[in-house]
Design goal:
By secondary structure, the chain is an alpha/beta fold. It is about 25% helix and about 20% strand. The strands form five sheets. Strands 2-1-15 form a three-stranded mixed β-sheet. The termini are far apart. The relative contact order is 0.17.
């Protein structure tokens, strides 16, 4: 398994999708549907795009776990990477969310599927920080370099540095925090709209970091292990070119293939020389999702990668010693044991 590129992903099939009015204040990437388009029409278009993403990933050999969501109060549930991340070694993180109507996107059925299908050792839940007004919206707020163990984060309302430090301590990452703003000085709301860090290539809008010294430090950190950096412009960021993710697929004969999943809009914004650098190590898989992008996120936001080891396909054979322990009758529970000790009569 690649440290960076997971072989499986979680997608949420949100039947009641719409741009979330509760997040529009600090998400400069959000937009409204066309005038005259009904909510049902918007939701139907988005649903077709969600299915297209799942189909495109499965076509290149990525394992896709899809969960349906019929709840009309969760308009952004199509973006599960904000509340959930998984990590090699069997760990899951659950995150505190900025918008109150996003906090019930967290789903126990998703966690139960992961525990039953993959080897999960621990779940670390930071969501209890929400009442204190402290937030860290998962791999939207952070972009993780799984090779160099660096967590890149642009400061924002949705990205608290204290929670980042706790995450980095728990998961053994080095925090790398910076300010990132657009041409109007508006802070970037999520780091993953300006950056994607893969195994051998990174897409990063470095010029959106106004501090020249910090910008150079980030560049140098990205280039460790000879990784090539494709520098994005702010115009390309607005086309979601930074909102991509590296995944591991399979050819029909079982050979591994590395892909870079992004939207068709993002791919169109890239120059030929940038595409050539990406394709030195990744095969670009682009899906057209204009309706979902109205909510201010793109393909990367839709994907919660599964970095966990799968459980074996069949139960392991029991040794004679284990079988002997497991034989009937089973050990009495506490109530049965107490009844056995009660005096007769």
């Amino acid at each position: 398994m690649s440290a960076t590129a997971p072989e499986a992903v979680i997608l949420i099939r949100a039947l009641q999708f719409r741009p979330n009015p509760a997040t529009a204040a600090d998400n400069a990437f959000q937009a409204e549907p066309d005038d005259g388009e009904t909510p049902d029409e918007t939701a139907a278009k988005a649903l077709a795009e969600m299915d297209a993403v799942a189909e495109a990933l499965r076509a290149v050999g990525v394992t896709v776990h899809v969960f349906e969501d019929e709840d009309h109060t969760r308009p952004d549930s199509v973006f599960p990477n904000n509340w959930l991340s998984t990590h090699a070694g069997g760990a899951i993180a659950v995150y505190p969310m900025y918008a109150s109507n996003r906090r019930h996107e967290r789903r126990t059925d998703v966690l139960e599927m992961l525990k039953s299908t993959y080897r999960v050792q621990t779940i670390i839940d930071y969501s209890g920080l929400e009442p204190d007004g402290i937030f860290l919206e998962g791999t939207g707020a952070m972009v993780l370099d799984h090779v160099s163990r660096v967590a890149y984060m642009a400061r924002s309302h949705r990205a608290d540095t204290n929670v980042l430090e706790r995450f980095c301590t728990d998961f053994m990452y080095e925090p790398m925090v910076f300010d990132a703003v657009d041409a109007d000085g508006v802070p970037v709301y999520h780091t993953n709209v300006i950056a994607c860090v893969g195994t051998d290539v990174a897409l990063f809008a470095l010029d959106m970091i106004p501090d020249a010294r910090r910008r150079q430090e980030v560049r140098e950190r990205l280039e460790v292990h000879c990784r090539k950096v494709v520098e994005l412009t702010e115009e390309q960021v607005r086309e979601f070119a930074g909102n991509a993710v590296e995944l591991s697929g399979r050819w029909p004969d079982g050979r591994r293939r590395t892909i870079m999943a992004m939207s068709e809009r993002a791919r169109r914004s890239l120059r030929p020389d940038q595409i050539a650098v990406i394709e030195e190590s990744c095969e670009i898989v682009a899906i057209d999702i204009p309706t979902i992008e109205l909510a201010g996120g793109s393909v990367r936001c839709m994907i919660a990668g599964v970095h966990l080891d799968p459980r074996p396909a069949r139960e392991p054979e029991l040794t004679e010693a284990v079988e002997a322990i497991a034989e009937e009758p089973e050990t009495m529970d506490g109530a049965e044991a107490a009844s056995e000790l009660e005096p007769a009569g």
